[in-house]
Predict the 3D structure of the following.
Amino acid sequence: MPAALLVILQTALLVALAPAWNGVVGAIKARLQMRRGLPVLQRYRDLAKLAGKETVLSEDASPLARVTPYLVLGAALAVCTWTPVLTTRPGMGFAGDLVMTVALLAVMRVLLALLALEAGTTFGGMAASRHLALSALAEPALMLSVFTLAIAARSTDLSRISAAVAATPDAWISPSHLLALTAMWIVVVSETGRVPVDNPVTHLELTMIHEGLVLDVSGHHLALLEWAAAIRQMLLLTLVANLFLPWGIAVEPSPLALLVALGAWVGKLAVFAVVVAVTESVTAKMRLFRVPEFLGMAFLLALLALTSDSLLRG
Amino acid sequence: MVLAGLESALLAGSVWALVAAFLLPAIAALVPAAPAALRHAVPRALAAAACALAAVLGGVQLAGSSGALLAWWPGLPSEPFTLAADALSAPFVLLFGLVGAASFAAHAPSGTPAGAAARLALHAGFALCLLCVFLSRHALLFLFCWEGMTLLSAALVAHDLRSARGRTATYVYLALSHRGAAFVAYALVTLASHAGSFQFGALAEAFSRLEPHARESLAWCFTIGFAVKLGLVPAHVWLPLAHPEAPAPVSAMLSGVMVKAGLYGMLRFAWQMPGAPPEQWGTVLLVLGVASALTGALYAAVESDAKKLLACSTIKHAGVLALATGLAALLAANGQREIAGVALAGALYHAIGHGLAKALAFLAVGEAVHAAGTRHLESLGGIARRMPRVSFAALVSTLALCGLPPFSCFAGEWLVFQALILGFSAGAGQLRLLAPFAGAGLALAGALAVAALVKLYGIGFLGRPRTEPAAAAHDAAPRTAAAILAFAALPFAWGVGAPLLAGALAAPLAVLLPGFEAAQLSEHAGFVLVPAGLQSSRIAPAVAALMLGAFAVLARVWLRARRGGAPGLRIAPSWACGAKLDARMQYSSLGFTKPLRLIFEPVLRGERELQVLEEGSPYFARKYRYRSGLPELVEKTLLAPLVQSVLWTSEQVRRLQTGSLHLYLAYLLATVVGLLLWAR
């Protein structure tokens, strides 16, 4: 299969399936709590409805607010093009690597935080402030945990890292890999706004972080931002699935291998959905100022992963 | 031949035009009949043109050319004073030229005509000294310019004589800078006495011939001296005090260019001249770099003064420069020249990238705080709607200083990360231990800097104005705003064009690491940046930016197609849960980084003081006074005790001076006897 087609296919998969994952988690949670819950596809209907609606902008907002939702979605989509979903064959790998990925996720974060401050209301500032403080700890942990893999692969190219980990099936049992995986999972939980860091279904503004950022946004702008957030979550989960646990990923893009890879990827995402749903059902959200300890733990675990790598591999 | 002629013309033109710009306002002030334009407009245009010429000179030099000289006899015995650009100084001359041109173009007269003329003259003189620091090929001339640069900029820091803050800043700045200059002067004069000449060529030869012990101690002397200028911990305390006090165009040159003179000095005198940096030099710089990056970013995050925040962010970036340089030295000492080249290319690229972004930030934020009449973020807000052009420039510089693609600081930091990862895999024991901490520090500092700069733009420029003057702010004079907007294109170009432009650093890199080919940093016709020769990872900032833009447009097109027309957009007042919206309901600058202050409380150790002024009932007082502050940790734990001990010692020494003549005679006698015994 030509490289261009593979890039388009992988990007389309990430973009199209992104809203579904939240739906699946919601459905599993509802079952665990003996409720019927929303249909899995409800998220798509919400997006479609919002996309058709008028946006109300604050009269205090600067011209930046008009373009921010488009830029945020654009950044998320740009990262999608070089993320290995089904195959380790690099398509757009020349354009971006791990550092570029983290930086573009940071672009999304910065633009969202600025957008939250546009309207001059309290909740936007509160959410932006908390969001930046927490990701100030989460981002280095993310960087370090993937660095552990990058050092083994001697490259920051996502496809190469995935291929290198896939080529040594036993490597994942090493202490540095497990430590890094734990750190990465904590970061993913925090960055996607999940319990115990944040509650995605909360309706109390004072406790919101990620939802609070878009509290002043409405209509089609909100549709773009919601979709971008879902894609960002999908990206982070795919990084865990295909960098840390790249079982089943297609090294050579033959149709059969791609089908297997698709099955493996969807399967891993389903497992993640169950893990998240169970965690969210049995744990409570942390107090805000306990979260830094939680994230600090991720940072330390990642640092430990790196140093143990240097000690053990020697 | 033609190129050499062109170069001499550029060199002479830029230097003499700056001299003219320095002298013209003074001459015009003495001649009563002189037209008013001679006091400000003409010298300013001259200085801006001189800087533009210097930028071209730096560019020509980077493109590779013979190197023209400008020499004259100062009347001293021995040698002529020589000015020339060479490969190592070329990137710094280029940076100076670009920033200087923008800085002079945005230098608007303010206050009394005499004061404005004096400020412009000082600005031009400072620029002249700064340029000559990079161009000097003579030790005495170098020292003279180094001092001139410090003194003239100190005069500009002190330009507002009524401000107590300005006076303190000037004092601390001069005190620390002169400690640094003393180290540099000692080392240069010692070296000159070994060489028997003041010319840099002879100095370099003598330096590499010195015995290892003497060579290393001299190189360390230079390093200490220049580390003060670079603003590395623990000699960084002057930087957040002095840089904000100067007028904005001067702050732009201080933070954008002068700090890099410290890096230039280190590379020239501790690396190029001795042939290789001393042992452990890399380790020390790496550790100091990480400490500075973290300190700068943390204090920037908790700072509420817009210009001071930018100055703290300069410390962060100076730390990144030191980290990259130290990493390069460590790798070069281990024999990994290729990875060392990547780290050094990162350092040089970041030096210019940060210089452009920081200068733009100071120019844009300077205009905004000038219009609003305050530097305090708590009194700003709503600037973006009132000063759209300047705010756009501020936004570009904010994103660039956050280290985000596709702007100027990203490519340099990317190269440093690559060198860290590759160096970790290939490096020796020491590096394997240091690299994880360097990577962690760099990532944490980057994330903290993001919080700081989002605060600067989000609280200072967005939302609703918090005070009357901020609400009355209006855009800068068209010419100033146009100059700032035009300059905003540079950080973007420096980021997008990274693969192409990094190759242009070949000449300076080859001076420090012979055999390193910087052309290998780019492939695919300059679209893709790779760590040279290693081909392990690659990025294409231009392609990534293009994709981001294309996808954004695609989203817009998709929305239009769905609705069959432009999606509706309505402007309405902000919703405040039914209450009347007040500007004070917004998050304040202090509140915005409160979570960070709580998280880093063990490091920051803030001071709080609550005083009851008037007792009311037993439970509630009627009047309180609350004071809180964040004293600089290094200042509190290291420098304050140092100052205390010096004061205490001088107090003790004063006891010797009782004023009694007999006692003084006894001292004389004791000294003579002591000397006789010693000389026996």
Observations:
- The longest strand of chain A covers residues 55-58.
- The CA atoms of residues 247 and 256 of chain A lie 15 Å apart.
